[in-house]
Design brief:
heterodimer, A: mainly alpha, Non-ribosomal Peptide Synthetase Peptidyl Carrier Protein, Chain A, 4 helices, B: mainly alpha, two-stranded parallel sheet
Amino acid sequence: MTDQDILTVFTRTLRDLIGDDSIVLAMNTRRNDVDGWDSFMYVSFIVAIELELQIKFRIADVESFETVGDIVAEARSLLG
Amino acid sequence: MLFNSYEFIFVFLPVTLAGFFLLGLSSRNLALGWLVVISIAFYAWWRPINVLIIAPSILVNFVLARWLLRLTADKTRAGLARLVLLLGIAFNVAFLGYFKYVNFLATAANDLIGTNFVLTQVVLPLGISFITFQKIAFLIDVHGRRIPSFTLRDYGLFVLFFPQLIAGPIVHYREMMPQFQQARCRWDKENIAVGLSLFGFGLFKKVVLADGISEYVSPIYETASAGSEVTLFPAWIAAIGFTLQIYFDFSGYSDMALGLARFFGVRLPANFDSPLKATNIIDFWLRWHITLTRFLTAYLYNPLVLWLTRRRMVKRLPGLGGRAPSVGAFLQLLAGPTLLTMFVSGLWHGAGYLFILWGLLHGLYLSVNHAWRLFGPRNWSSKETYERFMRPTGFVLTFLSVVVAMVLFRSANADAAKELLQGLVGLNGISLPQQIFAQLGPLKGLLPSFVTASTVMSAQEFVFAMAWLGVLLLVALLFPNTLQLMARYEPALGVHPKPAAPLSLLRVLDWTPTVPWAVVMSSLVVAAVLRIGGKSEFLYWQF
């Protein structure tokens, strides 16, 4: 899976969760950039990604992600 | 040894600084080693046996952390690493549990299930709650590979650094150690000036403001715990007065800790940001004892919410967030974890039912606040209208909620808390000091019949208490705080100036190392030093 593939999964997941098809995620997107992506939705998003990709993030990493690119990089590393 | 004592200010501190800067001339290692030794001496001053109690726990943590460091470097041993982490956390919780909670648990068991456990005399090592949390955070950070290496001296310095040893701020290794490693260990004019001013502000807040109001607050709580009725005015003086006392006491201590660390070129994280100005309770907890909130959020609340969300979503139940959250998700993913976290916070503060109740009450406040945000009315005509209404309403509600909860925090027992809470709502009647009542003359006829004369407080005490409340409320609610005043010099880790309006109070009062500020600081320090005397412990040193 390439970074772009992972990003596509992320975008689709977040659109489903927030119910907004206009969301477009990029590697440098931050949570504040997306309307409705609050801290609660962030946890739901992380878990939805885990279920979709069959991976499990470490709690310490979940707290330290700053951009979508950080989450993509960790997901890629977990996917091996 | 208290920060607000002559022996600390005029003997311990000068000796410590002289040793540090002299040794720093030849070697940074020696200077940092000196800091470890002097921190142990600081801790031992109170009760030397404390060192013998705490030292084995530090060594056990060090050994476990080194083991974890090796295990986490090898991906095939992740299971064992997790086990070692859990063992370490269990060891620390048990250590704290024995010293702080064994008698409380025995009393609770005797009360609730009729056992006959005999209470033992356990000496509570100073600052054990803070030290324990810091050691747990360290183990979790090593397990999370956030700490690549460390030596015994570095670990000792992190755990024992005397400015924050007894009552925080609760720090992370990764935010402290780079500062020690880069410290010049030389006399630095700016660090000394900023450190002295932070220490001076803190000393003034503690010795003059907090101790000043406590003279009027403590007798009322003592009256309540002796079983006497507390009427409306004294109840409010006690409730608001103690809220102000603990704010100036603990934020004063925190300012002093920031100042002391700054002498060595180290910035500690901020612990207070004018919490009484908060306009909702979530905001209050982001401004009050910030490093405790940060610890509990990172190491308890967040992992719990993540775990619960995983369980829910595997069952195809919705998580929390979005525009139409479900009540089930709210209760399970927000209210439950919040109540549990605040229960732990209450228990951490003290081994007693009232501390637990205080924590749970704040958990309830926070849950209501979150519920309002998620489910509250959204049909405001504009954001401005909402803000115009909610900011003052939220401020008053938050202030009153904090004040009422503080009665539980301060009361010596449940009966005292009941007396005061009854007094707050007027159930114990309304009374004025005898002398004031007598002076009213014909105005007495205008007062309702349930207003009576009382001898509990003299007219002078009553007037002075009211004046103290007025002054302290003014300082707490209208003045910029220490960190804002000194923001230009990064008084705490990551605190930088925020853009201020050209004519704001902040701009006018901005701290600078100039003669007018030297006069102000000297006056504050002289006023404080002259008031030092007797035993005046920091309220948070008991935790």
